[in-house]
Structure formats: structure tokens, C-alpha cells
Amino acid sequence: MRGLTHLFCYDGPMHRSLTFGLGALAALFFGCQGADEMDDAGLALEPGDEVWQRSLPAAASTIAVGYDLSVAVTGSKGDELWVGRFSRDGDELWSYTEPGYQGRSVVIDAYATYVAAGSNSEASVGRVMAFDRDGQVLWTLDDAELSPRALAPAPGGGVYAVGPVGDASSIFMERVLPSGDVQWLVEEDGVAGSWLDADATSDGVLFVTGLRDDGSWWMHARSSLADRLWTTELGQPDGGAFPSLSVNAQRLDASVLTQGDGSRGSIVELDPWGGVRWVQELDVPPTDIASNGSDYSPLLVSYLAHRSVDAIDNAGVIEWSVAQDPECPKSYAVVRRSVEDALVLRWCGGNESQLVLFKTS
């Protein structure tokens, strides 16, 4: 009955005509009733409610979800790079540390976990690392002139890596194959900055957002073969930080934190060709944003203070929120795991972080 229960409880675009006896229909009904996540008291969880929570031994800053719903997290543990991978239930599968680096971005594809790392030393060596399913290092890609700050999944496996170019006023973008070989590398001097984020659509279009030294905010797009597509200027937020990006074939969403009077941040939605659809000001400082691409599903926004996560609809209305944990008050990253749940990464101070799975529908 498990497969039939899943079929009838599925709320996606599936339409089937099946005939069952009354006993089977009753079993299916009660199976659907029991399919909801429950809290410790046996009550059904609502959007924004916590499903599980895990403590992490590092100042973690970024998260990624794999096709098998496993989770990868990276950051720093003192002066060491720290990266861990967890099962869909939050159990640790493996972790890895290496002195002299800090984790800056993480991506999971069907074959491996990829981490962008930066050196903590004066040498400032940038690194991309690949780990197999058991946490063994497959390869490292080091470069003293290129410092990867953000990764995005590439079609067919591997990653795009993005970051500043030495002291130059430009960024680099490269396609790294699953073997660790670089398929292509380009520099773009029309945009620059060390605050960067990247994402890609399933067909391999790469999008990058960032802040120049003068504070101007931009978004840039490249094809899977490195062809320059467009650049859109998104304004000049006062004291801008934490530029974040979430994309798919229908919509591009970006957010940025500001430190001026009044607004503490902005959300921008663009069409796939770089045209700005709308801009929304925020009264709390955002750190990350996540969308599943549906115009009917709210954007998830994590915050540096005040609240942990808000679900915001297209009219700017907060549909529901995830409460802040006073012990871990700063939320650094949010990512959707499925249409039913999402993950938030919180910093608790020192080498302590918190990974939380919460309901979204």
C-alpha cells in the first residue's frame, strides 16, 4: 500500500484514474492522514514548524542539497576548513577538516560534493575541492590568482566556480568538469567584487550577482559555453552585503542586505533575460534567499537578526515565519529541500552552528 498511498497523497501535477474497493480507499485515506510530519506530541506540523535540528561543530555558512536529499554544509572550524555531509534525516555521513582554509561555498551533484575554499594565510590561494560519497578527496584545484567565492551546479556534473581575480577589478568564471579539469575560464571586467553568489539553471545558464567596491549591485549571465548574455545593474544599496541569488527557468530572485536608515535590504525579481520585474524593500537584514520557481510558492528569506526565515508572497505579504532561536540568533543560509520542506543554517557563536529542517507546506 505504500506506493498507492504516495500516489494519492502526491500534490504535484499527476493525474491518474484508478478504481479500488471501499476498504482500499479507507486505507489510502488514513495513510494520507499519517503522511504529515508530526511533532513530539503527535500534532501535525504547520509551515514554519521545525522537523529536526542538528548541532554542527563549526562556524558554518553555506548549505546544499543533493538529489538523494542528503545535505552538505561548509564553513570554518577555527583556522581549519570544515565540511560535512548528512543524510536526509540529518545523520552525519562524514566530515572533513583541513588547516589553513575556510569553506565558502558548497554544491552536491549526482556524483560528488564540491567545495570552494579560501586560504587563511597571506598566500591567499584559492581552491576547489571534490569529495566522493564517502568523504574522500577526489582532487583539488588550486590557483594563487583566482579565489573562488561561489559555486553553482553545472549540467552533466561538476561545477561553475566564480570569484575575484587577484587585485584586479574583475571576476573570473570557470567550468570545472567532474574530473577536475577546467573546460573553460573567462574573466569579466564589466563587473567586480568579493561579495558574490552564483546559481545556474538545469540547462547550464550561469548567473552571478555581486557588489563592486563602490557599492553598486549587479547581476551577470553566461551560457553553458561561456558566451556573455547580459548584465543588469540593480542599484546601489547603502552598505550592501550578502548578495544572494536563486534561479530557475522562469524567474531570477536576488537579495542584498543594506545598512542605511530605513530599509535593511531588498529583494529583486528578474525575468530570464535580465529585465527587472519588481523590487521589494525589507525591514530586516536578509542573508540568503530560496525559491522553487513557482509563482504561487513564497520566497524564503533568511535574516541576520530579528527573525530566522520569512515566507514572502508576490504581494510582499509574509505568509508564515520560522522563529528565531535565541541561542543561535543569526541565520546565514536557507535552501529548499523539496516542495514540502527547507533547511536553514544558523550561527550560534564560536565554532557552533545549527542545521534545521522545517516544513514549508
Plain-language structure description:
This protein is mainly beta and 361 residues long. The chain folds into two domains: 2-32, no CATH class; 36-359, YVTN repeat-like/Quinoprotein amine dehydrogenase (Methylamine Dehydrogenase, Chain H). 6% of the residues lie in helices and 50% in strands. It has two helices and 28 strands. The protein has helices at residues 2-9, 22-33; strands at residues 50-56, 59-65, 71-77, 80-86, 92-99, 101-108, 113-119, 126-131, 137-143, 150-153, 159-164, 171-176, 182-188, 195-200, 206-211, 217-222, 228-235, 241-247, 252-257, 265-270, 276-282, 286-290, 299-303, 309-312, 318-322, 330-336, 341-349, 352-359. The protein has a four-stranded antiparallel beta sheet, with no helix packed on it. Strand 6 (101-108) and strand 7 (113-119) form a beta hairpin. The longest helix is centred in the first third of the chain and has 12 residues, at 22-33. It is globular and about 50 Å long. Mean pLDDT is 87; it is low at 1-35.
Give the topology.
Elements: H1 2-9, H2 22-33, E1 50-56, E2 59-65, E3 71-77, E4 80-86, E5 92-99, E6 101-108, E7 113-119, E8 126-131, E9 137-143, E10 150-153, E11 159-164, E12 171-176, E13 182-188, E14 195-200, E15 206-211, E16 217-222, E17 228-235, E18 241-247, E19 252-257, E20 265-270, E21 276-282, E22 286-290, E23 299-303, E24 309-312, E25 318-322, E26 330-336, E27 341-349, E28 352-359
Helix pairs in contact: 1-2
Quick summary of this structure?
With 361 residues, this protein is mainly β.
